[in-house]
Design goal:
- The structure is a homodimer.
- By secondary structure, chain A is of the alpha/beta class.
- Chain A has one domain: Rossmann fold (3-Layer(aba) Sandwich), CATH 3.40.50.10680.
- The first copy, chain A, contains 13 helices and 14 strands.
- In chain A, strands 5-2-1-9-10-13-14 form a 7-stranded parallel β-sheet, with helices on both faces. In chain A, strands 7-6-8 form a 3-stranded antiparallel β-sheet.
- In chain A, helix 4 runs antiparallel to helix 5.
- The longest helix of chain A is centred in the last third of the chain and has 19 residues.
- Chain A is globular.
- Chains A and B meet through helix 3, helix 4 and helix 5 of A and helix 3, helix 4 and helix 5 of B.
Chain lengths: 316, 316
Amino acid sequence: MILVLTGGVGGAKLVLGLARRLEPGSLTVVVNTGDDFDHLGLRICPDLDTVMYTLAGLANPETGWGLSGDSWGFMEALQRLGGDDWFRLGDRDLATHVERTHRLRRGEALSAITAGFCASLDVTHTVVPMSDDPVRTMVRSSGRRIDFQDYLVRLRAEPVVEGFDYEGIQHARPYEGFLTALQDPQLRAIIVCNSNPFVSILPIVALPGIRERLSRRRAPLIAVSPIVGGAAVKGPLAKMLGELGRDASPVAIAEIYAGLLDGMVIDRTDDGLREAIAALDVQPFIAETIMTTEHEKIRLADEVLRAIGTLGGDYG
Amino acid sequence: MILVLTGGVGGAKLVLGLARRLEPGSLTVVVNTGDDFDHLGLRICPDLDTVMYTLAGLANPETGWGLSGDSWGFMEALQRLGGDDWFRLGDRDLATHVERTHRLRRGEALSAITAGFCASLDVTHTVVPMSDDPVRTMVRSSGRRIDFQDYLVRLRAEPVVEGFDYEGIQHARPYEGFLTALQDPQLRAIIVCNSNPFVSILPIVALPGIRERLSRRRAPLIAVSPIVGGAAVKGPLAKMLGELGRDASPVAIAEIYAGLLDGMVIDRTDDGLREAIAALDVQPFIAETIMTTEHEKIRLADEVLRAIGTLGGDYG
């Protein structure tokens, strides 16, 4: 059994590669819900949906979010009515948000709803929210606290980041299936995807008890660097690192994950950073980490699984 | 100024005819909200939307509900997720329901939301809900009470009707603009559209104080019969009348509106019922009341306005 921690777009690519290589049921994907938010009265879970749609083969490969070939009648009509249109929702995608919100209001847990959706969409691996309780990632900037989706989409990641708060995290219980997977004697490895540490991975790690459990892990933990050649593969990560006084480098990522990492897969471009990574007591692995085609996603998954084999010796 | 009381599909046709004939602003259309309901967590107002879409020139002429040329991506995706699909919502139509529900939850009144939507859709006449407070029309059948939309759509109007309850009606305040219009010295006439009395018109009349105000009216009240040649123009009205021990006849409609009617427009087919109508102290007017084309809607509007001219003498 392999446990994966991931955010949305970037991480979902690796998750797809892993899903293609591993037997159905052997992969548990724990997805960040810190950037979930309410929009037009609907509960939107961007990372969960991206992972779910990706594994269902329905994701839009161009945008990274939403459904491939979706239509935009709803958005057009909403604009005409003067509704909030800064966050784009496709017609088919909307069914996910409307039905999820409806079930949440009836008292169903996000995890149960997600399991139902995954079954309906023929997703054969286990996709779970990090928690059934709401957590809101807030960006601190110039004395303000900005809701993450507001920061990312509406404000186009322009405000200068001074830090992050995960609102509600102290009362959020990690999803039971996540805790079970962490304690599973069959757990072979924990993979941290090439997602943004601040807004995708650290909210998961910040859940009560998770950092401690990860520190006491009996299976290797390996991360894939989301920074390649001094830039973020996607999104505002490099900008955030700079604003927080760090280099846009896999070394900074390894430092951020200090105490949790056994190994880190870095891109061939960053081969020169092997020793700096190793100096942090993290075993470096080199691979092609840019994934566009499905072939590249599977190839990286293979490299990660091979690295786990190497690290496994310390645990077994 | 002319005040119109109406339900959805049938009445909206006459409303359109009147709107084409009267100056913008001179028509106030009070719409039944007794069949409003919550579906998938969204507030659906079928009659309000039908009237609004009809006046905006956006209504689907084939179904009588929804938007012309709408797409069905949402419904397809919802079905795949196992959502409730007995009530069909088009992609563009959905924007109305999502945005309305969102604004209602923020505390806006249904009347204000409707006014905003009408402005966005370039509806130049005034369309108002009968009340901002929720009223639910329930069908009594075999000792059960069935929500009207459930009865009409899901159960296809099959249960035998024993009566109707307008749940919440005793605490529902008539919309202020409705009361104002009733007291307006400029009020020239009140028109009751050819809608179903039980589920479209009587909920409006049953609002606290409305029957009394209508009885004390200083402008003539004229209805258009929704029964033509022994059948309902649309929907289960003839079946309902039969189950309630009444004939499917304009005379039964005049009896149901007893004490409120000054005149009634009946179809040429029912010319033989003139005297029976007159015997109820209701002045009969003959017209072609079946409306398919816009021309026919305007022609009937003209006949109704002419009848008002005749009745007007009693009021002056």
